[in-house]
C-alpha cells in the first residue's frame, strides 16, 4: 500500500509532507500487513529462555554406572540440592553375578532416581556403536538392540519415568548412529569443549556436547589438579556469558588418595572428591546469583523443546480474571515440564493468583515496556491457565495439597522491610531457608528446623539490609528452589 501511494504522489508533494504521509501510512497499515508488530495485549504470553529466568543452564552428567557415583557424588548432590544425569550400562546392572568391581547396583541407582536424579542410557554393553550392524531390537550385538534394550531395561526398573536420553559410548557416532538413536531417544550426548546453543533443531539434539576434564600428570597432591579446576571455572563462566547450556562429563569421583590406584585399574580421568566439591560450590554460587539453572539433561531438553513450540490462545478477559490455553505439539507423556512465563495482565493488577490444574502461584506484577507483567510457571497442554486479580479465597486449600513441594513468590515484592515467604512440604523434614545477595553471598539464614508437612509461611525482616536484589533458597531433602526478590527502601 505504501509503495503504491508513493508512486502516485511523490511528484506532487513536498519532502516534509511526503515524510508525514509515509509515517501515517505505516501506522495505519502495519498491523494488517505485519501482525507481529501489533502492540502487546493483556493475556500475551512469552517464555523465558531458561527456567526461573536464569541466565544459562548447566548439567552434571556421569557415565558407566560406577559405584563411586553412589558413594560420593550422590551425597554431595544431596547436600547441595543438585540433581544430575547418570548414564548407566544396563548389562552389568542386570547381571550382578559378574566380576564388576567398578559398577554400582540397581537399588542404588533407583534410590538416586527417587531423589530426583535422571537415570539415562549408556547402551547395554558399551560398544563402538558405529562398528555394529543395524540389526533389530531383539538381536544382540546390533545397533538397534543396544539402543532399545538399554532403554527398555531402565524403564522396567524405573517404570514411573521415561528414558529419553542416551550418551554415546566413547562419545562416538556416525550418521547411522544418529538416525537410529533418534528412533528411540529425544536427545543424545557426546563431547565438546564448547557449551551447547540455547536453541536446537533436528540432528543437533543428537550431538549435545559435554566437557571432559583431562588431568595432566603427575597427580601427587590435590594442588596438582588446580589448573584443571580453573579450566572448569572458565567453562562455567563462558556458559553464563553466552547464555548457553553447559555440561560436565565425569566417570569416577573418589578421594584423592585413591586416584593413583584407580588410574592403575583403568579408570578414565578420575575426579577427586575434593575437586568435585569445589566445582559444585562454584556452580552453586552461580546458581544462587541467578546465573545458572542446574538440572538433569532430561529436564533441560524438555524445557527447550517446549519453549520452542508452544502456542497460546486467550480464552477470556474480565476486570478480575484472565483465562489462557497454552499448548504444544509434543508427546504429553514426556513433555510436561513447567515453563517460566511472562504474562501481561491488566494495569491495575498489582498481585495475581495463578491456577493450572493442581498448580497454584501467588505473585506480584511489575512494569516493563509499558505493560504490567507477572512471572509464573505454565505447562503446555496442562489445562487452562486461570489468573485472578489479588488473593483468591481458595489459596489455603490449594497450598496444602499433599505430595507436592512448592516455593512461592514472596509477597509483597518489591518490599520494605518486611515480606512473607511461603512454601509447602509433602512430608515432615528438615528445612533450610537462606537469603543471598546479588553476588551469591549468604546474608541470612531465616529457617533451619524440622517442619511438619503442609503449608508454611515466614516473615522476613530486611531492616538491616541495603536496597537491592536478593535471592531466597529453600532446601528440604531432595528438593531445592530459588526465587528472586527486591528490597526497595
Ranges with pLDDT <50 over ≥5 residues? Answer: 1-13, 22-38, 394-402
What is the percentage of strand-forming residues? 25-35%
Helix content: 25-40%
The main pleated sheet reads as: 6 strands, parallel
State the end-to-end distance. 53 Å
Q: What is the strand tally? A: 26
Mean residue pLDDT: 88
Helical segment count: 12
Any idea what the radius of gyration is?
A: 26 Å
Structure description:
Helices cover 28% and strands 29% of the residues. It is α/β, with parallel strands linked by helices. Strands 2, 3, 4, 7, 8 and 11 form a 6-stranded parallel sheet that branches. A 5-stranded antiparallel sheet has the order 12-13-19-15-16. Strands 1-14-18-17 form a 4-stranded antiparallel sheet. A hairpin with a 2-residue loop joins strand 25 (468-476) and strand 26. Helix 3 packs parallel to helix 10. 37% of the residues are buried. Mean pLDDT is 88; it is low at 1-13, 22-38 and 394-402.
Q: SSE layout and pairings?
A:
Blueprint: H1 2-9, H2 15-33, E1 45-47, E2 56-63, H3 67-80, E3 85-88, H4 90-94, H5 106-114, E4 118-121, H6 143-157, E5 165-167, H7 175-184, E6 187-189, E7 211-212, H8 226-242, E8 245-250, E9 253-254, H9 259-264, E10 271-272, H10 273-288, E11 292-294, H11 297-309, E12 311-317, E13 321-327, E14 339-345, E15 351-356, E16 359-364, E17 366-368, E18 371-378, E19 385-389, H12 395-399, E20 406-407, E21 418-425, E22 429-436, E23 442-451, E24 454-461, E25 468-476, E26 479-487
Parallel strand pairs: 2-3, 2-8, 2-11, 3-4, 5-6, 7-8, 9-10
Antiparallel strand pairs: 1-14, 12-13, 13-19, 14-18, 15-16, 15-19, 17-18, 20-21, 21-24, 22-23, 22-25, 25-26
